[in-house]
Specification:
Helix content is about 50%, strand content about 20%. It is an alpha+beta fold and about 190 residues long. The two termini are about 30 Å apart.
Length: about 190
């Protein structure tokens, strides 16, 4: 949806990244890795966003850093638009997940909740045929406009790992997340 509005996949990814992290400066190569786009495309869109007034740049040693100008007149509206697009993504995923039987727990984590230090973006617990899982993951990637890292655990494996306070599971359950399905009674 946002790509259609903003006219460029790279620009949309940059807007999302900058507006979700308004206090963080980024340098060009870091941005190409973060949004998985080509260097020339990223440079072109950065210059467009600087010319537009949304971003400011500064040179620091050998790197040029870019950051959101919070004083930009449309900053609040653009931030709100990005936040609302995430809400629409969440709603669409909830509808898709509700169609699948067998899921006991489904949480958005990692990059889907702006927490890049978490090891996965989607945690699914339950019995789900591989074909259905791949179809759902493809839809998540289409909705999110980016490849995602996902973890699928059987209920037995999840309970075992949770019972021994597995660090991976502990970090996900206690980190930032959006629970779409919670039939396990896991407290937030």
């Amino acid at each position: 949806m946002l790509e259609n509005l903003f006219g460029s996949r790279t620009r949309t990814k940059l807007l999302r990244l900058f507006l979700e992290n308004p206090d963080q400066p980024f340098f060009v190569r870091e941005l190409t890795r973060e949004i998985n786009e080509k260097l020339n495309s990223v440079r072109r869109e950065l210059e467009n966003l600087v010319d537009f007034g949304l971003l400011v740049s500064r040179q620091d040693l050998q790197k040029k850093f870019y950051q959101v100008d919070k004083a930009f007149v449309l900053f609040p509206e653009l931030s709100s638009l990005i936040a609302r697009s995430k809400f629409l993504l969440q709603r669409a995923l909830e509808k898709e997940a509700a169609k699948m039987s067998g899921i006991k727990y489904l949480a958005l984590t990692g990059q889907l909740v702006n927490s890049i230090d978490l090891p996965t973006d989607l945690l699914l617990v339950g019995e789900l045929p591989e074909k259905n899982l791949r179809k759902f993951i493809s839809k998540v990637e289409v909705f999110g406009k980016t490849p995602i890292r996902y973890t699928h655990l059987s209920l037995k494996e999840f309970n075992l790992r949770r019972g021994i306070t597995d660090k991976f599971i502990y970090n996900i359950l206690n980190g930032p997340k959006i629970e779409l399905i919670n039939k396990l009674g896991i407290d937030e």
